[in-house]
Design goal:
The protein has 278 residues and is of the alpha+beta class. It is built from nine helices and eleven strands. Helix 1 runs antiparallel to helix 4 and helix 8 runs antiparallel to helix 9. The longest helix is centred in the middle third of the chain and has 25 residues. It is globular and about 50 Å long.
Amino acid sequence: MLKFETAALTDAGRERDENEDTVFYKVVDEPSDNPMGLFIVADGIGGRMAGQLASFWAVEAVKDSLSDLIAYQDPRSTHSFSREDILRMQKAAVSGVDPSNLKQRVATAVDKANSVVRGYSRHSPKDARNAGTTLCLALARGRQAIVANVGDSRAFVLRNGQLHQITKDHSVVQQMIDAGEVQASALYTHPKRHVIYRSLGARDTVEPDIFTLTLTPGDSLLLCTDGLWEMVQDASTLIGIINAAASAEIACQQLVDAANAAGGHDNIGVVLARMVEV
């Protein structure tokens, strides 16, 4: 029986008064052989309330777009069924989700989020100004996960003691690294390290990077904003925290604590989902 053990946490960090990061997760554990999970982090752009609202509305838009997949309805709520009937209907409810369609559903959700943030910035110029947000999400159904990102919030998978970065930053410095113009360490030191060339709300359309991942029991999905990965640069520290923590909640708190201990220069957003077999 597969299950996601999940937690999320966000923190303003040590240097900022506002928190422009938004995090979210929801897991539907039934039927137990194909649990559904939606995991999201977003890092707002624009300062003051603009970035905070942009990340919030982006997450709300994704949730709304995928609500039918993560809103499990218990068939026992209005009728009387046998245990066998209940199990059969539970399995059919999730089995009815076409795996090949999940990637398109994620792309549509990102497009909707972009439209919402774009509309917000256009119709509330006084409050929104240049509002925008990064977005990193994972939609998991059983062992299959669809990961999408826009901006420099990241998704990782921890498997067999190794932390693998799934996403690639849409940042100016990452482009320079790919072109061989600077070393990889420039991600943490270059004056333009916070400049991203792709975000929600910047244009009428946005093209997310979308990845398909097969999960195995024991894997951990880590989604985070740059407030974590830029502060805690040593992968072994992240691995040690996640592996040693007794729960996903404790791991998230310790990850945030580690980012703050390293300086806490930015807001910190973290979602951790462990796939376990029980």
